[in-house]
Amino acid sequence: MNRFWCVLGLTALGLLPIGCGTDRVSGSSSETENMLSRAIPVDSLVSSWNHPVNGVTVATIRLDSSNFDFSKSTSKGLDVSLERANGRLLPFEIVLWDSAAARARLHVRLDSSLLAGRQRIVLRWGLDRMVRADPAAVWTAISDSQRQQVNSVLIDDFEHGTVASLLPNGNSWYVSMNDSTPLSVPSLVPAPQGHSGTVAHFSYTKAYSLMGLALGGHRSLRSLDSLVLFARGTGVLLPAFDNLDSGTGGKAWKHVPLDSTTWKRIVIRPQDLDTADNVAGNVGWISVRDRVSYLTFLVAAGHDVYLDDIRLYGVNRDDLK
Question: Which of 142, 173, 197 is the last residue of a domain?
Fold first, then answer.
């Protein structure tokens, strides 16, 4: 088949093989070209919240079965490269690569020449050996605040005067004292001593109560690094990631003792969550991580709790749209 028509036909499918089976000389060796590629518009990667600083930002590329054939790539994505349209390599890092689940997450550095106009970058994969840009260069001269913007999402700091969260969907917090009472909302109060600003607070008398937030659908949090928050109160706090599907749902949680006089900075990573035991629906992180629909904070064996500065690391605002 004429090479022009080979390229044209596969381009229409969004996959462009480089060489269509010809040989490529790399150093002193010869390699058969099995590389595939896909052009990605930069506009599709940079959301309005991802503000470039000094003309540079880091964007997230999410791959799944709808936009990438994992069977044509290696198990760890080591055959993947990102390039400019002219073939120059772009610095990128693999944050997550799970071929079995057909999910991956990449960070790529974009400068002003790519951010201006309708530029495209090229994702390539399929070679046994790949020359890649230095992953460490992704974050060169990127400020801590800009890095936090790309790598986390502030769920709420309770400083805006309402119980609406800071999520893109604006869903509000609720408090449930037990399954049979109507939902109410937490109070926004000045922080007790040892902390500052406004915090969320609720008192309870039932054995189990909770403060919760609907994420507006089922969200994959597979790339989650940690949940971080500040808390103070009595009893035990159980931060939980819930999948409330009827019949197949469950939760993954962690038991954290509270202190009534001292604020705790709580950091919970997926590996810190309690082992699945099916007690009160605890099915463990692996069972819920791709279908989290609620973030909840259960409390027990006490009478009140204060919460503040709730942030997820390892995801960003686009993961919660």
Answer: 142
Domain count for the chain, please give it: 2
Structural domain ending residue among the three candidates 122, 142, 162: 142
Could you tell me if 36 and 137 lie in one domain?
yes
Residues 155 and 54 reside in one and the same domain: no
**Residue-wise pLDDT tens digits, 48-64:** 999 999 999 999 999 99
Q: Give the residue-averaged pLDDT of 145-170.
A: 96
- Please indicate, yes or no, whether residues 134 and 206 belong to a single structural domain of this protein: no
The pLDDT, as a whole number, for residue 130 is 63
At 177 the pLDDT is: 80
Instruction: Check whether residue 173 and residue 25 sit in a common domain.
Output: no
What the block records as the tokens of 89 is 């390599």
CATH of the domain at 309: 2.60.120.260
pLDDT tens, residue by residue, 202-254? 999 887 899 999 999 999 999 999 999 999 999 999 999 999 875 678 999 99
